[in-house]
Design a protein that fits this description.
The protein is an alpha/beta fold and about 750 residues long. Helices cover about 30% and strands about 20% of the residues. Helix 8 (about 190-205) links the parallel strand 4 (about 165) and strand 5.
Length: about 750
Amino acid sequence: MKIIKFLKYFFLSIIVLVIAIFSVVFYSLDYKMYSLKANQDLYKKNIWEINTDSLSENLLSNMTLEEKIDQMYGEKMYKSIPKFFGSFILKQRFPHIYVGKNERLNIPPWVLSDGPRGARVLDKKINAVTTFPVAMARAASWNTSLEYQVHDVISKEMRANNTNYAATPCINLLRHPGWGRAQETYGEDPWLLGEFGVAAVKGIEKNNVMACPKHFALNSIENSRWVIDVSINERALREVYLPHFKKVIQKGKPASIMSAYNKVRGNYSGSNKELLTNILRDDWGFKGFVSTDWMYGIYDGIEAINAGLNVEMPWQDEYSYDLIRDGLNNNKIEISQIDNLVLSTLKTRLKYAFSYDSIEYSKKLILDTSHINLAKTVAEESMVLIKNKNILPFKIYDNMKVGVIGKIANLENTGDMGSSNSNSPYVVTPFQGITNFFNNSNVDVIYDNGKNLEETKKIAEKLDQIILVVGYTYEDEGEYVMSRGQMLKSAEAKELVGIKGIGGDRLNLRLNNDDENLIKTLSKINENIVVVYVGGSGINMNNWIDDIPAVLFSWYSGMEGGNALANILYGKANPSGKLPFSIAKNDSDYPYFNPYTDTITYGYYHGYTLFEKFNKEILFPFGYGLSYSDFKIDNFRLMENNSNNNKIEFKVDIENISKIYGNEVIQLYVGFENSKINRPLKLLRDFKKVGLKPGEKKTIILKIFKNDLAYFNEQNKEWEIENLNYNFYVGNSSSNNSLIKYKNGIDI
């Protein structure tokens, strides 16, 4: 009997396993391409007006309750899970997730693709897409026009992949440089974040792709993202952590927005009525739909419905039929709430389903030569020259030996391998880029990984130039995935419990010991050395910065990064990047940061506002970056005609006083030193990137709207403009030493 029982369970287990494997294989191969466009003839046949608002109302009135609920989640769990994991296991690809498809009513789906640095979704006929530098790198370009072009390309390649929904841009604020996903966003300053976010959204939506800015809100810790509760006062929330979201919503007008994982003041973001309804919809006038982040986005479907959450992704869990029916039957929710959530989703999606495409989005668009060239241009403009004691650009002469050293110097290293990953056809490493640059010349390019320090020293002694590449990979920082249970245990313990996963937050702002040892050692051997840093945010350089004559931030620079690096180092391209964050002298001066915690308070000050307010020493200021050109900035003045009561405009002259073409970033700051309210000393309020030929002089116009001088009054919950003398500054960084002050200020 025991044998029979054993065989019974054995064969039953085999059957279950076979079914599971079959399901994984079947659903992971399910790449059926549904049309993203609505069949207008079918609607006309039913005599329904082809107007997206009225059509949406007609469609809603013809839906059963089950069909309405089907509009409120990604896919069925039994189908989505094997498809999702099977695609990664079998093909290392991200599957198509079809949302809201209803064949009976002719409602096409929306299909999600991540896309911070390239189209994420791939079908079986496409092997690769254009991969750009990460968002933090692009922010360092301070060129919003380039950001628009980048997202125009990304959305074109998304459409060629038959997707129409982009889970980008990430516009969370860089509160601390240790944040693992810093590379996905645009830096520490709300103004810079907002300007780049608007450019990204407009570039995406140019090709009738729905943009989804994320993560709303206060998501700036990775390792505790599923469990952390963020406390914050109202002024800090409104003035520091939300203004960039507000700007992107009101000026970019995205179709959607993604809620965050974390709690805000005790309520999960996906079920937070204050965020999703009171602020987002009532205060800002948002008309689109709200989607959760993937998995663990909500924990109570009824709370989420009451809060105003439209769509649960990627599969049906809390928005289950039974739960919603129970909520309706017990008067916890009303059918009108379901109708409103579905209606706002339909109205938004159908606008894109009926939209006119000005071009054909064929697969020939993917990896177009212009796209690849743009990737290289962006990489060049993104790189920030931090230090240069007159050794860059490197000189080129016959028979010289160039060493490219470091364990990541010949590594295909484009950044995070989580949701922001993009599959590129190739990646030009730093070593390959230098090799390409000297192709068909008599320059000898040597690679050494630096693992054997004694051997590396011997090689270095024979080199004329050393390019030392240091920094991080996706193993060190990026999206962090672990079980929620382990994350909760670590958060409660305030330290890691179990084995640390790949990526996540950085616990140490210094480079690894091997990199620092290489820097200290090689700097004594050869004075013709440049340190090239690869990473997503700031680092501690105190141990070695004084020993090195030149330092370049190259970031995770995309598929053409190595070629761009060579062009910068040897003067074919002139560095013009500026830091999108400040770098403190002492790590303790940054705001409190513990990746393993279930509670944290976000204060009003961080970044340059904190360092200036409390007189903290910095290593490099916000907005800082060197060039091979020299510029003169002067004659800071008011426009002759400033009759507009809502806007103040300034003029400033900039001249290239060197012999090489270059780009400079002119930055306008407003100061609040005379305020009776606790406010920053100054804030960025406008910027322009300007290209100048040798000897060329240009007059630049910078502006500030008076509403951008306001603070949030917590007592009456209104924005107010102080009646005081405001100071205005212009220059090429936030450092007071590089700024020109406008006379004695302006009374407002």
